[in-house]
Specification:
Layout lengths: L15 H6 L6 E4 L6 H9 L5 E6 L2 H6 L8 E5 L5 H6 L6 E7 L4 H5 L25 H5 L4 H12 L4 H14 L5 H11 L13 H11 L2 H15 E11 L2 H15 L21 E7 L3 H6 L7 E7 L11
Parallel strand pairs: 1-2, 1-4, 2-3, 4-5
Antiparallel strand pairs: 5-7, 6-7
Helix pairs in contact: 7-8, 7-10, 8-9, 11-12
Bound molecules: S-adenosylmethionine (SAM).
S-adenosylmethionine binds next to helix 2 and strand 2.
């Protein structure tokens, strides 16, 4: 805990991430999700005096926390990671040796009631990672149609009773606007049955997740960043992505599968020579899960999955991700 009672963010796969990523101590690396700099610090330890680390975070509090790192090899951008190509280009960096994305929210974000991410604490229903832009969860829930709310809860929260919840939200806001996390959590507890398979899971879990993913366009950001990061990587450069739920992991897995086997979608009956087939853009895609010890000491690591792959020399070819 720090002075304001916010839990410290322990980086997941702290040993594996820098070990896999940093193959060249004099290389240029990107941490797309600085958070509280757990991984950034470990990456910096692996670099020599010529190495560079460029970090990104869309949360101003994370960027503020980065000021503690007084190291001339390090620079942080307050920007979404999907903008890494343009931001790095503005300082003359056009290729890098490795990119890390540790996606999702950080512990300090979840544990700060004022950010509105958690149904466990009462606070303003905000949920924006970047408080300087975009609409809050409350603004959206108070104006969106039943159909749109239901679609978000179903698609991003995998909430079976999405329409029932959306209806209840619209009925409540006719009487009073939704303003706090407690109002929403209470509504969800009233409307939804307890999960029989997982009685530990609060009924609000799925809806809070769905709304958060939508408000921050998390899956859109991930898809753009996979392309952006890959286009920056030198041959032999490494892309690492840590995700925390199946919606994200599915996107990353499919992306690496397509990039490693781009010819797999081509009809084998077509009269194409090996030279005419698309070349793999990545090789050696691997999945790493936290070990027993980490699972015991860092409960947040429980749902984490690291996927990484090594960029080939084939020119980058923008991947369409659905
Ligand atoms: C799981 S935490 C990263 C923790 C970090 N690896 C550490 O060790 O402290 C995710 C962080 O990424 C940031 N983030 C999420 N999506 C982002 C995006 N699209 N662009 C930039 N930052 C983003 C969040 O604000 C949060 O601070």
């Amino acid at each position: 805990m720090n002075a304001v009672g916010v839990k410290k963010h322990i980086p997941v796969l702290a040993k594996e991430v820098p070990e896999i990523l940093v193959q060249n101590p004099a290389g240029i690396y990107v941490d797309g999700t600085f958070g509280r700099g757990g991984h950034s610090r470990l990456i910096l330890e692996k670099l020599n005096e010529n190495g560079r680390l460029y970090a990104f975070d869309r949360d101003l509090e994370a960027v503020e926390a980065a000021k503690e790192i007084k190291d001339s090899r390090f620079k942080i951008f307050h920007a979404p990671f999907a903008e890494m190509v343009e931001r790095l280009d503005s300082i003359g960096v056009t290729e890098v040796d490795g990119v890390l994305l540790d996606i999702g929210v950080s512990s300090p974000q979840i544990d700060d009631a004022q950010r509105g991410f958690s149904f466990r604490f009462d606070g303003p229903l905000d949920m924006r990672m970047d408080k300087s832009t975009g609409q809050t969860a409350a603004q959206w829930l108070n104006t969106a149609s039943v159909e749109d709310i239901s679609k978000v809860l179903k698609t991003y929260g995998e909430e079976k009773f999405s329409f029932k919840v959306a209806n209840a939200i619209v009925n409540l806001r006719k009487k009073q606007p939704l303003e706090t996390t407690k109002q929403l959590a209470d509504l969800l507890s009233d409307v939804l049955p307890r999960n029989k398979k997982d009685s530990q899971q609060h009924p609000a879990t799925r809806s809070f997740q769905g709304i958060r993913i939508f408000i921050n366009d998390e899956l859109g950001q991930l898809k753009m960043a996979l392309n952006a990061a890959s286009s920056l990587l030198k041959p032999e450069g490494i892309l690492e992505v840590i995700s925390f739920h199946s919606l994200e992991d599915r996107i990353v897995k499919r992306f690496f599968e397509n990039c490693c086997n781009p010819a797999s979608h081509i009809d084998p009956r077509l009269p194409l020579t090996a030279d005419q087939l698309p070349k793999p853009l990545f090789s050696k895609a691997k999945r790493v899960l936290p070990g027993k010890e980490e699972l015991e000491t860092n409960p947040r690591s429980r749902s984490s999955v690291l996927r990484y792959a090594v960029r080939t020399a084939a020119p980058w070819n923008e991947q369409e991700l659905t």
